[in-house]
């Protein structure tokens, strides 16, 4: 960071401003003057607020620079002056907006004769625009006092910066009431009528373009404002004036009743297209009817259509006799005459008129055969895609739109009125089907002779698809089918062969599969052996395996992405880590449940048969009993209780005789082991070697065992632990007796891997002596217990 290294340097402007005779130009020559001004350097702002400095700044942006100044620095000071005045410093805005003398000096720029200097005009417009945004009340009051303001704006409308300033007055004024007052004031000054007068052949092209663009922007801005401010009670007066029938008639009169001028004609058509704009998606050759076609908010003002309808013949004549254009030579041939901007915009106007779906307009276009002329242009100018897309839009709308509503529909003619007169005209008078087939055949013939594919073929394909689609699913489907059936037998056969052959082949070629997955084979030879080894699809085991793969494999999914803190602890200290890696796996097998139950019970009986003595009157060893403690090796007293606290007291009594016992009993650990027979909870100390213990316990119960050293011959070493199998060592059991009882013993062994710790746990049960031996091997720890049941 710069301030960390103290790289900030003091601006030279502060030193410069300390001079008494410093001038404005000297300050403006400093490189960081703009940065210091935007940072609101107090010394600099105070200097600029001086009356003479403010007057000089305004003078720089309103007067032409001296011709003696070098060209590259000629507009240096005007540019810096504009940036200083528009730096959005509140003190400068206040001084400039409240000083009427400075405003009059600024306003004097508009009183110059046209054309204005475009660069100075941009400086003037920028300064006045920011004042309108920051001081709207003061600036509007000042401008309304100037009687010639609107006249001067219209006079200089050919300068783009002045047009921008006019639009700024409509967009930058935030208070709604003040904006409405400005709109009423401009409407009273007839700004719309004056702009309309600018669009005629006697004016130059710049005025045509800027006046047309101003009117178009006024229309869009006013409509957007109406949709945004729903609660506005007063309508927009400028928009209402533009949509009046007499205003549109005046526009059309300017281009048709006087000398034809392409710039004026195109400008007027642009205004009409903006008036015809609707708030719905553009109908770019869609096959289906546009939604909301008859909704009132999407309809065109009826007065505009009434003003245009009598002039349709003049627009039609423009298609036949456009303004003179020079012969155009292109790489593929000579255009005599070229399409031209006039005819292209007329076709766009016809498309907008068709979108309005008005009966009177449709009837007039049919009487003039305007659609036939447009189709002639389509097939003549084979490389003009601007024309082709407009023709496609026209045909698509005609095919997809429902019949235009009429004012009067007698009951006798109601069924006939539901047919589209445009579709009928297109198929019968314009011979739409025949021209498509002929153009397609002509193109294929030229291509067969080595020629190029014609430029309209892509659009022609979409037009043909539009016919097929609307014939099957469109609202005018029955009418289109009837018109096709009324064709001559030869034309009908050609059309059917065309849609089933050439058109279908073209659509197939145009349908490109981005990814083809049918013939993808692995390059690895290892996978070949598995391709033909499938499983039976109806196998319930395969379904169960699929379900198994979808099961949640852990009780807490987030544990898969890290380690448990207990995995890094000493494994001797952590013996009760829960084994929840696989928490729940549910299999659903569609098998015989009764057979499974019988098999399970038989297996259970087989497993526990050796623990039962059918001819004995002894108690069942699995009956639930209370836990009692007998003397250990005839020397240890029994506690006679299962209370863990009493067992702990018994342990404390033997601490004196056990030099290896831990001094802190609170550090004992606990581990729960489920061996399948009983759940045993064990307490043991943290010694690496644990002596043998013998306690009495009731099988089938969860008990707490306390380990105490025995008075045996010695401690059980790890080597001895690994070799020991069935009975405690040196606990008074002879080796011969141990061998004879092995046949009546049953041993269950479980191996558990917990992190880096591997544990082997075994439980050996002697049914004859009712003795159970528990063994655990882990990290040189050998724990052995003798479990003995006692009769109540």
Automatic annotation (TrEMBL):
Annotated protein name in UniProt: Protein phosphatase 6, regulatory subunit 3
A GO molecular-function descriptor: protein phosphatase binding
Species of origin: Amphiprion percula
Entries under SUPFAM superfamilies matching the protein: ARM repeat
Stated family: Belongs to the SAPS family.
Bias-annotated ranges (Acidic residues): 643-653
Gene Ontology terms: cellular component: cytosol; nucleus
InterPro entries hit by this protein: ARM-type_fold, SAPS
Bias (Low complexity) ranges: 717-727
């Amino acid at each position: 960071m710069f301030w960390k290294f103290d790289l900030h340097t003091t601006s030279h402007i502060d030193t410069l401003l300390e001079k008494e005779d410093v001038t404005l130009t000297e300050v403006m020559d400093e490189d960081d003057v703009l940065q210091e001004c935007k940072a609101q350097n107090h010394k600099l702002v105070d200097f600029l607020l001086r009356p003479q400095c403010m007057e000089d700044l305004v003078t720089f942006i309103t007067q032409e620079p001296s011709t003696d100044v070098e060209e590259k620095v000629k507009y240096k000071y005007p540019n810096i002056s504009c940036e200083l005045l528009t730096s959005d410093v509140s003190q400068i805005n206040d001084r400039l907006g409240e000083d009427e003398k400075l405003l009059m000096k600024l306003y004097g720029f508009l009183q110059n004769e046209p054309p204005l200097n475009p660069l100075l005009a941009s400086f003037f417009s920028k300064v006045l625009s920011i004042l309108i945004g920051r001081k709207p009340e003061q600036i509007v009051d000042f401008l309304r006092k100037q009687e010639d303001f609107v006249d001067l704006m219209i006079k200089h409308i050919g300068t783009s910066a002045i047009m921008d300033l006019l639009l700024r007055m409509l967009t930058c004024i935030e208070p709604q009431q003040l904006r409405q007052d400005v709109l009423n004031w401009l409407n009273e000054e007839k700004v719309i009528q004056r702009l309309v007068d600018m669009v005629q052949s006697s004016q130059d092209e710049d005025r045509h373009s800027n006046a047309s663009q101003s009117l178009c922007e006024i229309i869009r801005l006013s409509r957007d404002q109406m949709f945004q401010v729903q609660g506005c009670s007063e309508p927009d007066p400028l928009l209402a004036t533009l949509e009046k029938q007499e205003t549109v008639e005046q526009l059309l009169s300017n281009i048709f009743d006087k000398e034809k001028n392409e710039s004026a004609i195109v400008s007027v058509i642009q205004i009409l297209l903006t008036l015809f704009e609707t708030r719905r998606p553009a109908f770019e050759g869609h096959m289906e009817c546009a939604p909301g076609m008859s909704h009132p908010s999407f309809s065109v003002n009826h007065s505009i259509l009434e003003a245009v309808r009598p002039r349709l013949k003049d627009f039609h004549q423009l298609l036949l006799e456009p303004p003179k254009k020079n012969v155009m030579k292109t790489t593929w041939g000579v255009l005599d005459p070229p399409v031209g901007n006039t005819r292209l915009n007329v076709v766009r106007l016809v498309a907008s008129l068709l979108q309005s779906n008005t009966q009177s307009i449709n009837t007039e276009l049919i009487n003039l055969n305007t659609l036939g002329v447009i189709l002639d242009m389509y097939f003549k100018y084979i490389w003009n895609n601007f024309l082709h897309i407009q023709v496609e839009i026209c045909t698509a709308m005609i095919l997809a739109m429902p019949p235009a509503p009429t004012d009067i529909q007698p009951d006798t003619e109601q069924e006939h009125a539901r047919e589209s007169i445009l579709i009928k005209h297109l198929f019968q008078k314009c011979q739409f089907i025949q021209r498509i087939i002929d153009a397609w055949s002509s193109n294929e013939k030229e291509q067969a002779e080595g020629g190029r594919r014609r430029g309209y073929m892509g659009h022609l394909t979409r037009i043909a698809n539009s016919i097929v689609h609307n014939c099957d699913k469109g609202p005018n489907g029955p009418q289109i089918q009837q018109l096709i059936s009324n064709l001559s037998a030869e034309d009908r056969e050609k059309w059917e062969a065309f849609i089933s052959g050439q058109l279908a082949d073209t659509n197939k070629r145009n349908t490109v599969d981005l990814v083809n997955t049918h013939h993808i084979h692995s390059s690895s030879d290892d996978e070949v052996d598995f391709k033909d080894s499938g499983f039976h699809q109806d196998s319930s085991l395969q379904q169960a395996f699929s379900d198994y793969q979808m099961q949640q494999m852990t009780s807490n999914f987030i544990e898969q992405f890290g380690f448990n803190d207990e995995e890094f602890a000493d494994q001797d200290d952590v013996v009760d880590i829960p084994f929840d890696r696989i928490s729940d796996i549910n299999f659903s097998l569609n098998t015989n449940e009764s057979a499974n139950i019988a098999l399970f019970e038989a297996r259970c009986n087989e497993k526990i048969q050796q623990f039962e003595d059918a001819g004995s009157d002894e108690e069942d060893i699995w009956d639930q009993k209370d836990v009692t403690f007998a003397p250990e090796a005839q020397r240890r007293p029994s506690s006679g209780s299962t209370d863990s606290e009493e067992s702990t007291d018994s342990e404390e009594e033997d601490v004196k005789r056990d030099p290896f016992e831990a001094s802190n009993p609170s550090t004992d650990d606990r581990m729960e082991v489920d061996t399948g027979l009983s759940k045993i909870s064990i307490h043991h100390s943290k010694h690496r070697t644990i002596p043998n213990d013998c306690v009495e316990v009731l099988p089938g119960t969860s008990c707490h065992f306390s380990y105490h050293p025995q008075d045996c011959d010695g401690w059980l070493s790890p080597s001895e632990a690994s070799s020991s199998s069935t009975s405690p060592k040196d606990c008074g059991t002879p080796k011969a007796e141990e061998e004879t009882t092995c046949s009546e013993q049953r041993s269950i062994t479980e191996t558990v891997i917990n992190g880096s710790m591997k544990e082997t746990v075994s439980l050996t049960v002697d049914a004859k002596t009712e003795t159970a031996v528990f063994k655990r091997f882990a990290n040189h720890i050998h724990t052995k217990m003798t479990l003995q049941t006692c009769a109540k």
